[in-house]
Amino acid sequence: MKILFLEDDDAIAMGLKYSLENESYQVSHAKTAAEAEAIFKKDDFDLCILDVNLPDGNGYDVCKKIKSQADTPVIFLTAYDDEVNVVMGLELGADDYICKPFRVKELMARIKTVIRRNEKSPTKEDASNIISIKNIRIYVKEAKVTRLDTDDNQEIDTELTAVEYRLLLDFVNNRGNVLTRNQILQDLWDVSGDFVNDNTLTVYIKRLRDKIELDSTNPEIIKTVRGIGYILEK
Prior knowledge:
- The chain is of the alpha/beta class.
- It folds into 2 domains: 2-119, Rossmann fold; 123-232, Orthogonal Bundle (Arc Repressor Mutant, subunit A).
- 42% of the residues lie in helices and 24% in strands.
- It has a 5-stranded parallel β-sheet, with helices on both faces.
- Helix 4 (83-91) links the parallel strand 6 and strand 7.
């Protein structure tokens, strides 16, 4: 299992690289954004751990370039813990976000969960599949979603953000099962909602419904199960 680790603090980098290698991960360490991008181009990685503050830029820009080249999972490692920065990182396609100072065991657990979640995604299981649900189609190979126009029967591209797309895939992966709000938060960000409150999740679900449902006020795809959570029926 190969990890690209971007961290400019030598003390943190040395200790964490040692801990990762003790867990049998192969670690390529970079100190700058430019160095990380060069390393990423030369090899295939199973995960990228990116610091945000860097001497020649920031981890957000590195994440953008990584995601433009491959669907490699990304965990941000940063001193920023306010919700704006967290959401911004997740909107760029990051799979998780852990704040300094942190416990090594906690990071190791996050890494395992992100890798496991990525492996069971439909994009990994069968990239050639087209998943049809009601009036939408999910082209998993292209990470694209379209909605059928009921007037002229034409497919219209639906522009989902990274978080909205992962939220939709979470429902697809658990099709037929009721998901509690806490389960959804854990699946999306691998935390128990510590920095994402119920209102934030409500906003994401509303935005997703607005984009995929024919009538978002009477949803037929993502249904509410009162007092429990949500379900995408089989």
